[in-house]
Amino acid sequence: MKRFLSCLLLIALMASMLPAALADDPQPVPVLSPDETRETPKGIHHYMLICMDSWAANINNPGHTDGLILVTVDEYAKRVMLTSFIRDMLIQHSDGGFGRINNIVSMYSPALKYGKDGKAGIQMLIDVLNSHFDLRIEKFIVVDFKMVENIINAVGGVDIKITSKEANYLKSYAISRASTQPALGGGGTYHFSGHAAVIYMRIRKVANIEGETQDVGRTRRARTVLMSIADSLKDISYEDATALLGTIVDNTLYTNMTPDDMLNALDLAMDLRGTKVEQIRMPIDGSYHPLPVAGMATQEIDYVANRAALWDYFLDSFIVVEDENE
Question: Which of 141, 172, 195, 197 is deepest in the core (most CB within 10 A)?
Answer without folding.
Answer: 197
